[in-house]
Specification:
Blueprint (H helix, E strand, L loop, with lengths): L1 H7 L11 H63 L3 E5 L5 E4 L1 H7 L8 H8 L1 E2 L5 E3 L5 E8 L6 E7 L1 H21 L1 H22 L6 H30 L6 E4 H19 L2 E4 L7 E4 L1 H18 L5 E8 L3 E8 L6 H4 L17 H11 L3 E4 L4 E2 L2 E2 L2 E8 L3 E4 L2 E4 L4
Helix pairs in contact: 6-7, 8-9, 9-11
């Protein structure tokens, strides 16, 4: 009994053996798991290698782009520094963020960090042309703004047009002198005719046999011829000068009203209907009052002069985004095509009492304001067919200085 128990508890007893099939299955599963892990590791290594290649390519592309942008920035910086035009960058609040050397030279070296509107008010004066200003040194500066959609700011381009303006004035003066040289022969005839008539009438005044009523009639003819001579000389001087007076900000309604007051009595006396059709709201223009009213009055009087009794003359004003256009229309007999090309020639006239300078002066006034005068026969506006229409266009002013206050000079 004791021997049997000792035999069972002996360390040398035998454990039951595992089933060979189960052991084979366990090895199979282990091998499959090892294969999957190996394949996963190989795939991971391939992905890491691919990502490494792609990252290297991306880094190379970024480096290339950075180098290109750095080179572009360097070129742009060099270009801005070398530009004769000023470049001013404004942020969304209207503060000067950047300015190239040309802008600093024209506007001041301390403009960066300051409000643009304050700089305009304090350092520049509005000139007689749209978008042009004069600085303290007397230079004439043209400014153009472009919005920056991404930041809400603006870029202002500043050009010194002092020399260009001087050349334009010189060219216009030379053109006027050339025109005056061509019309010397016509001038002698224009002056001789009224002067000879005045001398003839004046000689008759000395006749003792001339009755009192006839004397008064002859005297009035002398005055009439001398007044015609005076008007001719005055128009010649205006044409030769080719300049306009000081400008001011005037409403279109006021200008049309002044022309209407000048011409309505003439129209009533002739039995012609004269309409002022300006519907421009509070729109205003930056002009020389005397010169522009004189040009429009001349155009209107010409129209009234050719329209028969019962006819119609209209003065209208059209406003768009860029221009203000004054239109003088009539339903008279019109102008023959053969004469239309010569209308603006100095001393060319079809009227016995005309000087032939009215249209030339009116076009000169328009061009001195930066606009033009043109003829458009046979147009229909507001349901009315017009035989003749003269259109005097002026550019809209960007800003105008009234006293010490900056106000909009654009037309609404």
């Amino acid at each position: 009994m004791t021997d049997t128990a000792m035999l069972i508890d002996s360390p040398t007893r035998q454990h039951p053996q595992m089933d060979p099939a189960a052991l084979a299955e366990a090895f199979r599963l282990f091998n499959e798991a090892s294969g999957e892990l190996s394949r996963a590791y190989d795939g991971l290594q391939a992905q890491v290698a691919q990502l490494t290649v792609e990252l290297a390519e991306a880094n190379g592309e970024l480096r290339r782009q950075y180098q290109e942008k750095a080179a572009l920035n360097e070129r742009l910086g060099t270009l801005l520094a070398a530009l004769p035009a000023g470049v001013v960058v404004l942020d969304g609040l209207g503060m000067v963020d950047q300015a190239n050397p040309a802008a600093l030279a024209m506007l001041g070296s301390d403009i960066v960090g300051r409000l643009w509107d304050e700089l305009l008010a304090g350092r520049l004066s509005a000139s007689d042309a749209a978008n042009e200003w004069t600085n303290a040194a007397g230079a004439r500066l043209e400014m153009r703004e472009t919005a920056l959609d991404s930041s809400g700011g603006r870029i202002v381009l500043v050009h010194d047009v002092t020399e260009a303006q001087r050349m334009r004035m010189l060219a216009a003066r030379n053109e006027r002198l050339a025109a005056m040289g061509e019309m010397v022969a016509g001038l002698a005839h224009q002056l001789r005719t009224p002067l000879s008539a005045a001398l003839l009438y004046a000689a008759n005044l000395g006749s003792p046999a001339l009755a009192a009523p006839d004397r008064e009639r002859v005297a009035s003819r002398v005055v009439e011829r001398l007044q015609h001579l005076e008007a001719l000389i005055r128009d010649m001087l205006v044409f030769a000068r080719g300049e306009i007076g000081s400008r001011e900000l005037l409403s279109i309604k006021a200008l049309v009203g002044e022309v209407f007051a000048n011409c309505d009595p003439l129209a009533r006396g002739k039995g012609v209907e004269f309409l002022a059709l300006a519907e421009s709201g509070d729109a205003a223009v930056w002009v020389s009052r005397a010169d522009l009213v004189g040009a429009l009055t001349n155009l209107t009087e010409n129209a009234i002069g050719v329209v028969p009794a019962g006819g119609m003359v209209a003065l209208d004003a059209e406003v768009d985004a860029a221009n203000v256009t004054f239109c003088v229309c009539d339903n008279g007999p019109g102008i023959a095509p053969a004469l239309q090309k010569r209308l603006f020639e100095p001393f060319f006239t079809t009227r016995a009492q005309g000087t032939g300078l009215g249209l030339a002066i009116a076009r000169g006034v328009a061009r001195a304001h930066g606009g033009d005068l043109e003829l458009r026969p046979g147009r229909t506006t507001r349901g009315q067919q017009w035989a003749t229409e003269f259109r005097l266009s002026l550019p809209r002013a960007a800003q105008a200085r009234l006293g010490n206050t900056m106000e909009s000079g654009g037309c609404a």
